[in-house]
Amino acid sequence: MTGPLDTDDQDDPPPPAAMASARDALALETIEVDLFVEALFRRYGYDFRDYGKASLTRRVRNLATGFGAATISDLTARMLHAPERLPDIISGLSVPVSEFFRDPHVFLALKERVFPLLASYPEINIWQAGCAHGEEIYSLAILLTEAGLYERTRIFATDISKAALNRAAEGIYPLQEAREAGRRYRAAGGSASFSDYFHARYELMKLDQRLAANVTFAEHNLVTDGVFCEAHLVLCRNVLIYFTTPLQDKVLQRFAQSLVRGGFLCIGTRENLEFSQARNRFQLIDGAAQLYRLLPGAGGA
Ligand SMILES: C[S@@+](CC[C@H](N)C(=O)[O-])C[C@H]1O[C@@H](n2cnc3c(N)ncnc32)[C@H](O)[C@@H]1O
User: Fold this and answer.
1) Statement: the pTM of the whole predicted model exceeds 0.85
2) Alpha-carbon distance 301 to 293, whole Å?
3) What is the distance in A from the centroid of ligand 1 to the CA of 130?
4) What is the mean pLDDT of the chain?
5) Coiled-coil ranges per the record (predicted)?
6) 16-44 and 72-81 helices, crossing angle to 10°
7) Which of 58, 93, 128 corresponds to the end of one domain?
């Protein structure tokens, strides 16, 4: 039975003292996270200061737990004094989550609207920024192969995390992902069978290494490193969401400078240029895929 008494019980606000103490803990954590990212930057040059605070705080908290640190300040001290743990720290701060043919309509848009124009170039450069564990690289390489373009394409696959890049280069994934990946591959306009592109062994699949033959894996930090290459296409999906708006603007500027005249930028479904300073440099080609083309005279390599 429910009655006013029960409801009152459930809706009772925490006592003021508990609220004050929760506020205090939150304020303290904010200071600790700020000091952690400042220390990381000053000691090692990795700049997370303009990442969105809410998700960054979650990741720093998880790192502290993973390191067995009692507090974030404790984690900061360990990070400062143990450079050999830096790759683990960077890997813990990055979110290398991806999947094959993620958002297949984006790949379909690339295949139908970008590949026919790329086909007019004798050599094609693609910069895939924030490639995580590489699922996106292999997906793109498969579609380029089927379009007859892979032979003359070089893919520069970059990420801030060395650990993620190593995994990407290995090209080994749980076999249980194959079925869903196959479904998305077909939705992306794949013309053969996804299973043609990997060898299964026990519970794992290894992607055909011919797909990585024209891929250069490189550590590159979008926040602190410069223009990467003269690209016909920059693919950077699900990365900018972690940045504050000013940092997004800075990175988008860098993409504009990296593109050849008339080059393409794809930022994927979770971001858009609507409120960005970079908006007037690009023409929207496909809203659902957030696919843009660099306007004449708007930067360009
Ligand atoms: C969520 S994953 C996106 C993977 C893939 N692009 C996709 O959409 O499926 C984000 C990736 O961005 C990388 N990243 C985060 N900050 C970065 C930075 N400053 N420079 C380069 N890569 C960064 C992370 O390491 C992570 O691998």
Assistant:
1) yes
2) 14
3) 3
4) 92
5) none
6) 10
7) 93
